[in-house]
């Protein structure tokens, strides 16, 4: 369960960390942050780090990963999108399942155990939100986290 302490996160604040990791891999990193996310700060950082790390792993050199955060009256949305290998449509419903690896050949060069996206999904569940993924045939994949609550309580950390 998420700690009772709440954290109003600005996803763009981690830009330098992600830019460094992306740059080391020969990839550009872009942040478009127009809103705040009310969430457990540690869990949010871990979830976004997981999504960005996966994007770095599968994005070809010279391409760009985009982290977007927006908020409105309905909630906040954080998404990570990148070009790279397509996740086939039949695998999309299961990518957040524990230990599920959609393409064994994609994981042979990494130490993937199929837990990262399951952890992301558990985190978003603690916030009564939802995680989703789209992967288009043009080779563009987007992971999206929706947080239904965006107004901060009286005390924020």
Automatic annotation (TrEMBL):
<keyword id="KW-0808">Transferase</keyword>
<dbReference type="InterPro" id="IPR004358">
    <property type="entry name" value="Sig_transdc_His_kin-like_C"/>
</dbReference>
<dbReference type="GO" id="GO:0004721">
    <property type="term" value="F:phosphoprotein phosphatase activity"/>
</dbReference>
<dbReference type="InterPro" id="IPR050351">
    <property type="entry name" value="BphY/WalK/GraS-like"/>
</dbReference>
<dbReference type="InterPro" id="IPR036890">
    <property type="entry name" value="HATPase_C_sf"/>
</dbReference>
<keyword id="KW-0902">Two-component regulatory system</keyword>
<keyword id="KW-0418">Kinase</keyword>
<dbReference type="InterPro" id="IPR003594">
    <property type="entry name" value="HATPase_dom"/>
</dbReference>
<feature type="domain" description="Histidine kinase">
    <location>
        <begin position="37"/>
        <end position="151"/>
    </location>
</feature>
<dbReference type="GO" id="GO:0005886">
    <property type="term" value="C:plasma membrane"/>
</dbReference>
<dbReference type="InterPro" id="IPR005467">
    <property type="entry name" value="His_kinase_dom"/>
</dbReference>
<dbReference type="Pfam" id="PF02518">
    <property type="entry name" value="HATPase_c"/>
</dbReference>
<dbReference type="GO" id="GO:0000155">
    <property type="term" value="F:phosphorelay sensor kinase activity"/>
</dbReference>
<keyword id="KW-0614">Plasmid</keyword>
<dbReference type="GO" id="GO:0016036">
    <property type="term" value="P:cellular response to phosphate starvation"/>
</dbReference>
<keyword id="KW-0597">Phosphoprotein</keyword>
<protein>
    <recommendedName>
        <fullName>histidine kinase</fullName>
        <ecNumber>2.7.13.3</ecNumber>
    </recommendedName>
</protein>
């Amino acid at each position: 369960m998420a700690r009772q302490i709440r954290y109003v996160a600005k996803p763009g604040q981690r830009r330098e960390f992600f830019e460094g990791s992306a740059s080391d891999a020969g990839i550009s990193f872009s942040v478009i942050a127009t809103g705040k996310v009310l969430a457990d700060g540690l869990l949010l950082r871990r979830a976004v780090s997981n999504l960005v790390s996966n994007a770095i792993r599968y994005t070809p050199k010279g391409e760009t990963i985009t982290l977007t955060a927006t908020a409105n009256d309905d909630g906040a949305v954080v998404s990570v999108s990148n070009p790279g290998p397509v996740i086939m449509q039949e695998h999309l419903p299961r990518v957040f399942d524990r230990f599920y690896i959609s393409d064994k050949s994609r994981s042979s060069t990494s130490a993937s155990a199929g837990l990262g996206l399951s952890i992301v999904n558990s985190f978003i569940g603690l916030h009564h939100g939802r995680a989703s993924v789209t992967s288009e045939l043009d080779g563009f994949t987007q992971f999206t986290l929706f947080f239904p609550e965006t107004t901060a309580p009286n005390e924020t950390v």
